[in-house]
Amino acid sequence: MKAKKYRKTATIEAEKFNEADWQEKYRSCHNPDQWETLASPYSIDRYHGHFIIVTLEGELILHDGDWIATGINGEHWPIADDIFRKTYVEAEK
Question: Please, which domain of life does this record's source organism belong to (predicted)?
Fold first, then answer.
């Protein structure tokens, strides 16, 4: 049986991760005395300085320039910039 081609039909929300901007944004939802975040899927690895995002697959590192996608059920995942640009186009408003 020959494989068929499929395309995604769901619309996602996404924002580009910029480490400098996110350090300020992150402070508003993080208690620096705790590992966990407060009401946020994001945290900072205190030992390595990485930004972490909690996904359905576990905790993943966010790299500067990655996109943070939010799915139709509120789930989050990072997408590398080159993959994002090849896969998604901005939806019409």
Answer: Bacteria
